[in-house]
Each structure stands twice: as C-alpha cells, then as structure tokens.
Design brief:
alpha+beta; 691 residues; 25 strands; six-stranded mixed sheet; single chain; nine-stranded mixed sheet
Length: 691
C-alpha cells in the first residue's frame, strides 16, 4: 500500500507522525525532511518517485501549498507540523491502477453546475482568466526551476523558462505556452479533472464546513482546480497539449462548454513542445476582444506585470526603414541631366569645343534619394520587465526609486512625505510598501464620506488582484495612505466576502495601521516641522477622526494631534505633549475652549483669568475637534477640561479670596432679594470667572 511503501523509506519519527494525519488520494504530496533523501537514494527500486519541489517558508502550518505535480491542478494537503528546512521535497505516491490509454472520460459533476460555480461564486470579472492561466504557468515554471537545481539536465533542449502568449484574431484563438514541468498522461487526467471529479456538491459542502468552523476557505480553491477552469469564462472549447520529462509521449486534453466529458489522446500534431504545457482557448463570439494583442497587453500590465518569469506576447511593432525613393531619384537625375545639357549649350555658344553626343543619364552622377517608410513586424515582446520594488531589499532601493514608483503607480506629481517598506514573516507572510502623499487628493471629502479611492493595491504572490479593497485593509481615517500589499497566503480569486472573514486580512490590517502610525511619528519627530505642518494641513482631520473611531490606537493618535493655543507664536500649532511639558506647577488638567476661530476664541471672557494666571488653553476651531477631545478624555494621565464649564478647580490666591468676600458683601442686599439666595452653593452668591 502507499503507506507501507513510504514507511520503508525512513525510520524518522517525524515522517510517521505525518503519515498518521495525511489523507492520500491516488496522487498525494507531502513534505519530508532532508535526512530522508539519503535513504531514498540508497534504495535500488524506490516505491515512490521523487519530485523536486519547494515548500512554503513556513510550511509548518496546516493547509499549506505543496509543490507536487504541475501548476494547473494545485493540491493542498493537511498534515502534522514537521521541522523541515526551508527547501523541502515532495514524494508523489506511485499509482498502480493509473490509466495509461487514450480515451474519453466522463465528468462526475454536472457541467452546468460547475460553470455556475465558477462564474457566479468565484469570478465577477472575465478578465481574470488570463491572470489565472499565467499564474498557473508561473507555478509550473517554478517547479521546473527548482527541479533543475538538483538535475541540470532536466532542462534538456529547452533551457529558457518563459511564458509565450499568441492570439489569432482570424481564427479567434488564444494560445498560452510555458516551458514548465509539464504533465504526464496520469497527471493530465488527475490535475485537469480534479474539480469535476470532486464535484460541485462536495465543494459547496466543504466550503460551508470551513466557514462554519471559522477556517479560511481559500485553501479549497487550489484543491478544486478552479484556476484552470476559468478558461471557460471566455472559451467554448479548450485544448491542452503537454509534455513532461517523465513521459515520452506528448498528450492532448480537450473539452467543451456544455460537454459532460473530456478527451485525452496522444498528440499527433507536428508542433512538438519539448517540455511544458500549451493551452489553446477557442474563444466565444462575445470574447473576441481577447484575441487582440492590445487588450492582452493591457491585462498583462494590470495583473501579471511582476511575475518572476518573462511573459512574451506576440505583438506588432512598427519600425522605420530607409528605402530608395525612385520618383525623387529620377527627378534628381533629370534635373542633373538638364543642367549638363545647359552647360553644353553655353559652351557651344561661346565657341568652345563640345562633344558631338548629347549627355545622357549615364553621364549623371547623382546619389539615390532616400525616403523613410514604416514596416510592421510581428514578434514576441516581453511584457513584464519590471521587478517589483517591494520584493527588493530596502538597502538596494534609492529614495529616488521609491519616489518614482509612487508617482508612476499612483499618478502623483509631488514626492511623498514619507514611505515605509516592510516585510512581515511568521505564520502569515506579506510584504508592503506604503506612502504618505505630499498633498491631499482633490476628492478627499468624498473619501471621508466612504467613497473608495483605490489607494491600496492588493497583490497575491506578485499577481495584482484588486485596488478596491481599501476599506478592508485600512480603517477609514487612514484611507489617504497609498501603497501595495503582496500576500503569500491569500487566494488569487479573493473576494470581499473572503477578506471580511479572513484572519489573514485582519493581521494585514493591524500591521498596516501600526506601520502607518510609525511613519507618521517619524514625520512628526523630524528636526524641521515643515513636513508635519504640510501633513497636518492636508490630513489633520483624518487623525482626529481616528481618535474618535479607533479606541485601540487612541493613545498613539493623540500624540499626533495639533491645536492652536493661547501660547502659540505666529499661529504655530502645539502638540499635547508640548502642552504637558509646559504646564504650570500643580496644574492637574489640560484646558481647551471650542470656538469658531482662533480670533473668536481669544475674545472669549472665559480666557481672561486663565491667561492672566499663566494657564495655556487649546483652541478647538473645527467641528470635529470637540468630539475628538471628548472621546480622548485623558492624555498622559491629565484630564481634558472645557474652560466654558463650571468648577475648573483652580487654586485661588489670598488676594482673590479677599476680593471675592468684598464683592459678596457689596452685593449681599441684592443676592438676599434674589430667589434661592442668588443661585450659589449653599445660598452664597456666585462670582463669574470673567469678572
């Protein structure tokens, strides 16, 4: 059996623990540690075939991708944590009952239900079919690259690892070819029949189970091979030709929309792949646009610009060429001949001796007149020459490169105020590059109202997914931040529903908030205050909104607040930290006053005594200010107190006490006459703080 055969390979306790939790199908993959390899090499007739693969850097967690097979039917398995090196290997269980003949095979799930699942449940945009197929091809190339590390001869006569895309508008076809690991006869049926073999009912059942248990359902996507089947969004027939180093025959797989079966036969065509996979989409009538090189180039630029292997698109290029202008050349020669004849006649008229024969064109020495014409040439052109800046080491990227990427990607014309390039590693891995813009957007008011700005671009393993998930990745008050996030753990066909339920997204969101606040603190702490003044003018309201909405980070946001105050010099703004540092000895609270403007605040009668006694008062001149301060309540253990309210608890000097007693005595007849004794405490008259 599979288990008993594998147990012969090693006595490692780790492998036994893994076997106890793995559920094998006819073809399974699992990670094994490096010590197993020596035993495998020593075996004369190993019961399993070693396939070089690379595992995730943190493949110890459940349900990680294991690179067994090809890039078209990705398997995901669950197993016990293994202490394995970053580069691991996969054993593919040998199958004694695998079919080896050509034939027609029936789908086990209704095609109509299958297509409904793809179109309505997973994909809302037809354009992503190209993203899925290119990503699958990239996976296949990845496997071939790592396979060749231990066996350089595996590359054979096809050393270049690349993806080629060619469209034929006349025949309405689109062909995608990779030089990856390819598929054998058994792998072809197994990998491209996975979703049908598993069945849509089973998919729905497992999806519900994982959602009910709170698990991330993204690992189902690869298991059911949905990426390849997105081809049927735009094609009514799909043909797959493939050649693997493990199989001497080149095979052809074919299926149609509406069919309940697919065929696998030996490929008798003259086109030999050598190694790899070629997918030909016979496009639907309403998908003819995908047979245009211009459209394909746009999609590749949008979704697959940062794939690590070259993507070559068959496209036209207009080149100038210099050719002889026959008409202008003949005219130049005729003019030169006429000039010779004229000179001859002039000499003859002067009595000079001239040849009897008239000059001819053979006597004219004139260079050919050239003209420029443009020739259209068709050839493969690389579409993804840019390495993603966020995958490079920070020490290798200059400030100018960061700024240029910001301006190009987000169509900005000012340099950013700051950037933060970071990488998060652990059970969840992602890279990010975020910026603070140099100015507020013109539609900032719409953004504060909840409209999407498309400021955060989400990538999954360098493949662009969407820029419409801002509200899921950052809170509303930080929607001015621009940048990219590249996750290794999210599925390619991520939806808003997956984002809202995913623990991965919650971790990413928390990290983005933390990295953004660190960036803002760095701006605030710069020697020159000009940069933070620029930031505050553009995005100060966002920080105040954050104080109101984000209780978890309220203390950090409070340090970023700025207000005008009674001690502001020349309109400069003061931080709460500066206020506390300059407080009078014995002062127990931070005082503020809400007003329509700074000038109006200065005229308020409440300030007279406080300013006279040397207390600083913050001026809250925007409607959101008072709400933010009310939510803040305290800063550095100091209460925030509105000076327009009663009972400030200020200490009263002996002179002030004597004056109050004199005033009370003077107005005693009047206060005795008033109902309730003048409204003061205990019937005593009350002296206003403005007096």
């Amino acid at each position: 059996t599979t288990k008993s055969s594998l147990c012969m390979l090693t006595t490692s306790k780790r492998l036994f623990r893994a076997l106890s939790s793995f559920s094998f199908h006819r073809q399974s993959s699992f990670a094994v540690s490096m010590p197993c390899l020596s035993t495998l090499r020593a075996s004369a007739r190993p019961p399993a075939r070693l396939v070089h693969a690379v595992g995730s850097r943190h493949h110890q967690q459940q349900s990680r991708r294991v690179f067994g097979g090809n890039g078209y039917g990705l398997l995901r398995v669950s197993g016990s944590p293994l202490s394995t090196p970053p580069v691991s290997f996969a054993l593919r269980a040998a199958t004694s009952d695998a079919p080896s003949e050509s034939g027609t095979f029936e789908y086990q799930a209704e095609t109509s239900r299958l297509m409904d699942l793809i179109v309505n449940s997973l994909y809302s945009n037809k354009d992503i079919f190209l993203r899925e197929l290119v990503s699958n091809a990239s996976d296949a190339l990845d496997k071939m690259r790592f396979y060749s590390v231990t066996d350089a001869s595996a590359l054979g006569d096809t050393p270049d690892l690349e993806i080629k895309i060619k469209a034929d508008p006349e025949n309405r076809t689109l062909t995608i070819t990779d030089t990856g690991i390819g598929m054998s006869r058994e792998q072809l049926q197994e990998n491209l029949g996975t979703i049908a073999r598993s069945g849509t009912a089973k998919f729905s059942e497992m999806l519900k189970e994982q959602q009910a248990s709170g698990e991330d359902s993204s690992n189902l996507i690869g298991r059911f091979g949905v990426g390849f089947y997105s081809s049927f969004l735009v094609a009514d027939r799909v043909t797959v030709r493939t050649k693997s180093n493990d199989d001497g025959t080149q095979w052809k797989w074919e299926s149609e929309v509406g069919s309940t079966s697919f065929t696998i036969n030996a490929d008798e065509s003259d086109e030999k792949l050598g190694r790899g996979t070629q997918i030909t989409l016979h496009l639907k009538e309403d998908a003819a646009v995908y047979a245009e090189a211009t459209k394909l180039g746009e999609l590749l630029k949008t979704y697959s610009e940062f794939i690590s292997f070259p993507i070559k698109l068959w496209s036209s290029k207009t080149e100038p060429m210099s050719i002889v202008d026959d008409e202008e050349t003949k005219k130049a020669k005729d003019d030169a001949l006429a000039e010779l004849i004229k000179e001859r006649e002039e000499k003859k008229a002067k009595g000079e001796e001239v040849p009897d024969d008239l000059p001819s064109l053979d006597d004219v020495d004139v260079q050919d007149v050239m003209k420029t014409e443009y020739e259209t040439k068709w050839d493969y052109a690389v579409q993804n020459q840019n390495q993603p800046i966020w995958t490079r080491s920070k020490s290798d990227v200059t400030k100018e490169e960061y700024n240029q990427f910001f301006k190009t990607t987000f169509r900005e014309f000012l340099d950013p105020l700051a950037h933060n390039h970071f990488s998060v590693e652990g059970t969840i891995e992602f890279k990010g590059l975020i910026y603070v813009p140099g100015m507020a957007p013109f539609d900032q008011q719409d953004a504060m109202g909840g409209n999407r700005l498309k400021n955060i671009k989400l990538f999954v393993r360098r493949v662009f997914i969407s820029d419409e998930f801002d509200s899921d990745l950052v809170p509303r008050y930080l929607n001015f931040i621009k940048g990219v996030v590249d996750s290794n753990d999210l599925p390619l066909n991520v939806s808003r529903e997956i984002l809202q339920e995913s623990r991965i997204v919650r971790v990413i969101r928390k990290q983005l908030v933390r990295k953004t606040l660190d960036m803002l603190k760095e701006i605030a702490g710069r020697e020159s205050s000009d940069d933070y003044a620029t930031f505050w003018e553009s995005f100060g309201k966002n920080i105040k909104l954050g104080v109101i909405e984000d209780s978890d980070n309220r203390d950090d946001l409070a340090q970023l607040l700025r207000f005008a105050s009674s001690k502001s010099d020349g309109g400069a703004l003061r931080s709460l930290s500066e206020y506390v540092a300059d407080m009078k000895e014995g002062q127990k609270a931070i005082y503020y006053l809400a007003a329509d403007s700074t000038e109006a605040a200065k005229k308020m009668p409440f300030l007279e005594k406080l300013v006279k006694d040397g207390y600083e008062v913050l001026y809250l001149t925007e409607p959101i200010d008072e709400v933010a301060v009310t939510n803040l309540v305290k800063f550095d253990e100091k209460d925030l107190v509105d000076v327009s309210k009663e009972d400030l608890g200020l200490e009263t000097s002996e002179e002030e006490k004597a004056k109050e007693e004199e005033t009370a005595k003077e107005f005693k007849p009047f206060t005795d006459w008033l109902p309730g004794g003048g409204g003061g405490k205990g019937g005593e008259p009350r002296r206003g703080r403005c007096c």
